[in-house]
Amino acid sequence: MLKLDKVSKTYKTGDKALHNACFEVPAGQVVGLIGPSGAGKSTLIRCINRLVEPTQGSITLGDTELTGLNRRELRRARRRIGMIFQEYALVERLTVMENVLSGRLGYVPAWRSYLRKFSADDIAQAFSLLDRVGLADHYNKRADALSGGQRQRVGIARALEQNPELLLVDEPTASLDPKTSRQIMRLIRTACQERNLPAIINIHDVMLAQQFSDRIIGLKAGEIVFDGAPDALTDEV
Ligand code: ADP
Ligand code: ADP
User: Fold this and answer.
1) Alpha-carbon Rg for the chain in angstroms
2) What is the pLDDT of residue 188?
3) Beta carbon of 234 within 6 Å of any ligand 2 atom
4) Where are the beta strands (DSSP E) in 79-186?
5) Phi and psi angles of residue 219, each rounded to the nearest 5 degrees, phi first
6) What is the ipTM of this complex?
7) Using a 6 Å cutoff on CB, does residue 24 contact ligand 2?
8) CA angle at residue 26 from 22 to 32, to 5 degrees?
9) Gap from CA of 177 to ligand 1 centroid (Å)
10) For 154-166, what is each residue's pLDDT tens digit?
């Protein structure tokens, strides 16, 4: 479970990007994070993976207080958080399989030699995940030979390869066509249900958010202005 307690972020520039965010995400729940540009969605996601230091408040994942970790502890904590990105963040010159396996390292491997470290079990799990996202036949292709939708499938498999306790997903469909977007959202949702994995998805498209989330959190000017069931969402958010 993820818990945020009175989390605020004011940037050095004076921008109050997030104010007093309080909520819990239980296991298996998919939260769609919506709101206009500048509302604080990215700031919220970045506070959780500590790419941004919150000014106030506490964030806990399981038993771990994420705020106030030293660099080494933070590295360990980040391995428990799977990230999926808008622009996929794959290593283009590596194969699909190598990209998926890199999820286990928690960082992008600089050379292929890193990948020789993986056990048969690691590789079996990666194969099974690639099969799950429909890319088993493409395991040996370079990432730069894939379509956008295929790349995002690799991104999903890579995040799951970490066996994460939380998924943070930043605009996963912003570069994809509507049909592929729905397929990607469905994959993420199903993966979370199967693994009882909580997720926060920063998503601009309100319809998609409603269709594929268990719960919607709406942000506006750094404030949570809606927190509830997708079908309870009103036009003001
Ligand atoms: P969203 O993801 O909803 O578009 P952001 O979290 O990116 O919103 O931004 C929220 C507010 O914080 C905006 O006013 C934005 O200009 C500001 N902001 C975001 N990142 C920074 C930063 N690194 N430094 C200063 N201000 C920032
Ligand atoms: P996105 O919304 O796709 O996350 P943005 O265009 O909001 O990206 O931000 C791009 C980068 O600029 C981010 O690192 C963000 O933190 C930073 N940023 C955004 N707004 C500001 C701002 N007002 N001042 C300084 N940096 C900002």
Assistant:
1) 18
2) 96
3) no
4) 81-84, 166-170
5) -110, 145
6) 0.70
7) no
8) 70
9) 26
10) 999 999 999 999 9
Q: Which atom of ligand 2 is nearest to the CA of 38?
A: 7
* Residues belonging to the chain: 237
Cα–Cα distance measured from residue 200 to residue 20, given in angstroms and rounded to the nearest whole number = 18
pLDDT in tens, 59-85: 999 999 999 899 999 989 999 999 999
* Buried-exposed string 45-75: b where 16+ CB fall within 10 A, e elsewhere: bbbbbbebebeebebebeeeebbeeeeeeee
Do 106 and 79 touch, CB atoms closer than 8 A?
yes
120 CA → ligand 1 middle, Å: 43
CB 188 within 8 A of CB 199: yes
Residue 155 CA: distances (Å) to CA of 73, 77, 103, 133, 232? 24, 19, 9, 10, 31
Q: How many CA atoms are closer than 13 Å to the CA of 223, on its beta-carbon side?
A: 3
User: Which ligand 1 atom is nearest residue 46's CA?
Assistant: 6
What ligand is nearest to the CA atom of residue 55?
1
On whether the CB atoms of residues 218 and 34 are closer than 8 A, the answer is: yes
* Residue 33 and residue 219 in contact, taking contact as beta carbons nearer than 8 Å: yes
Please state, in angstroms and rounded to a whole number, the distance separating the CA atoms of residues 57 and 3: 11
Strand partners, 201: 32, 169
Q: How far is the CA of 133 from the centre of ligand 1 (A)?
A: 33
Which tokens in the block code for residue 95?
């194969």
Judging by beta carbons within 10 Å of its beta carbon (0-12, 13-18, 19+), is residue 163 exposed, middle or buried?
middle
Enter the tokens of residue 119. 């056990």
Q: Which atom of ligand 1 is nearest to the CA of 11?
A: 25
Which ranges of 19-83 does DSSP label H, i.e. alpha helix?
A: 41-48, 71-78
